[in-house]
């Protein structure tokens, strides 16, 4: 073979392979790249409006404003406060009188702190719930000795007052709506999640009382609203106690307290978010808890900050509204804030905590098997996620050849004509597909 033929032969062979592939209906164009967009419809950020405790004006004031603006939210409710609920808070354990008598001679310590912290909030005396809350907060800060002293003070007061009766620990201000009304809101797309029976400090409850608070609340919600409302939960006071998280993460697909995903950077309410920082993760969840004195300017800045990037999910945590509940925010400020968010709806996806979690997980756990022919691109989607929980439609972006002028999207017997768009990388189409809906296809249907 001459030197010329030695270099010419491989080039001829490559040309023949490309021609044969094209004649068989396959194209080697690199323009068929497909990606699942970070947020539905190519939006830049996500916001979840979440509420704790289920106080009255969350439903009488805030929810109507949300529905007026087309927004859906997440309400973490204490089911023991709902009038027709079947299950109320109760103490499980030894005879309370025996425990009370022991406190006179045996100081609280690491061996008995959970039993005593579980009991004290039920004692019929002023400040009983406060002793429980303060000891629980102190315990979570790692100051175990001080937490024990707080309980000793509480039980000393109980002995002084000769307390012998247990009462239901009232923790929510004002009245609470009932299940019939909650069902209506759930059917409209709002999420209702577990927030325990009676809002205790779970970190200082013993196992039986801790599990009761989570499981009984879960079971009540399932009875009244159905299993579909059991996707996410919030353990009270935003606890991240490791023992509590271990129990709760086994019960629910998602927790607002913690999202242990390798692709997610969590910045909870006590953390700081730097909009210019590279966190090295695919997504960021940034929680903010507006309080009664939080300025509108600061609240608006949170929204502006997430729009400077395309990976951030702002989770807003509300409590009291218009005079009812902890750190109640006035109605006019809530309305102005929600209208500010709605004004940026082109770039922000407002959705329940459940929906955003599901979309992110589906995007990160969906594999695509692509087949490319001359006038058609087929995608087979695969995922190990449970289809009962993960049914969010995903937004896809596929680059197409420049000579494709009219494209249809086909899945599950449905056909949709797509708009052909262009960016710096070429022509593309954008479409929403059901990851559980079977194979999908994009077809070039002519000029």
Automatic annotation (TrEMBL):
Its main location: secreted. The keyword Signal applies. Residues 42-85, 144-249 form the NodB homology domain. InterPro entries: Glyco_hydro/deAcase_b/a-brl, NODB_dom, Polysacch_Deacetylase. The keyword Signal applies. It comes from the Bacteria. GO terms for cellular component: extracellular region. It is found in: Secreted. One of its GO terms (biological process) is carbohydrate metabolic process. Keywords: Signal. GO terms for molecular function: hydrolase activity, acting on carbon-nitrogen (but not peptide) bonds. This is Polysaccharide deacetylase family protein. It comes from Aquiflexum gelatinilyticum.
């Amino acid at each position: 073979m001459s030197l010329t033929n030695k270099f010419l032969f491989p080039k001829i062979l490559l040309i023949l392979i490309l021609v044969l592939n094209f004649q068989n209906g396959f194209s080697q164009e690199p323009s068929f790249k497909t990606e699942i967009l970070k947020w539905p419809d190519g939006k830049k950020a996500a916001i979840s409006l979440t509420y704790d405790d289920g106080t009255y004006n969350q439903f009488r004031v805030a929810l109507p404003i949300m529905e007026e603006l087309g927004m859906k939210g997440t309400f973490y409710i204490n089911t023991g406060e709902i009038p027709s609920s079947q299950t109320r808070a109760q103490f499980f354990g030894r005879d309370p009188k025996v425990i009370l008598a022991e406190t006179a001679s045996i100081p609280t310590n690491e061996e008995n702190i959970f039993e005593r912290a579980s009991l004290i909030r039920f004692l019929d005396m002023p400040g009983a719930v406060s002793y429980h809350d303060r000891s629980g907060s102190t315990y979570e800060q790692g100051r175990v000795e001080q937490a024990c002293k707080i309980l000793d003070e509480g039980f000393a007061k109980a002995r002084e007052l000769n307390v012998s009766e247990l009462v239901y620990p009232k923790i929510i201000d004002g009245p609470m709506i009932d299940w019939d009304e909650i069902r209506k809101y759930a059917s409209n797309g709002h999420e209702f999640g577990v927030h325990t029976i009676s809002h205790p400090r779970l970190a200082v409850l013993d196992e039986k009382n801790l599990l009761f608070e989570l499981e009984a609340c879960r079971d009540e919600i399932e009875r009244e609203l159905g299993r579909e409302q059991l996707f996410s939960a919030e353990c009270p006071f935003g606890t991240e106690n490791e023992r509590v998280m271990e129990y709760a993460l086994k019960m629910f697909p998602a927790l607002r307290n913690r999202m242990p995903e390798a692709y997610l950077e969590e910045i909870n309410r006590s953390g700081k978010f730097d909009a210019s920082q590279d966190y090295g993760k695919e997504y960021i969840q940034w929680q903010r808890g507006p309080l009664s004195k939080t300025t509108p300017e600061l609240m608006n800045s949170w929204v502006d900050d997430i729009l400077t990037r395309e990976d951030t999910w702002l989770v807003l945590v509300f409590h009291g509204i218009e005079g009812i509940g902890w750190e109640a925010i006035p109605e006019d400020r809530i309305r102005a804030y929600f209208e500010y968010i709605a004004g940026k709806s082109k770039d922000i996806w407002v959705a329940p905590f459940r929906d955003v979690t599901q979309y992110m997980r589906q995007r990160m756990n969906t594999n695509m098997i692509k087949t490319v022919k001359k006038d058609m691109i087929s995608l087979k989607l695969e995922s190990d996620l449970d289809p009962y929980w993960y049914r969010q439609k995903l937004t896809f972006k596929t680059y197409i050849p420049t000579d494709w002028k009219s494209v249809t999207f086909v899945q599950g017997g449905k056909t949709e004509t797509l708009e052909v768009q262009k960016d710096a990388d070429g022509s593309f189409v954008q479409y929403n597909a059901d990851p559980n809906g079977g194979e999908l296809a994009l077809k070039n249907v002519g000029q």
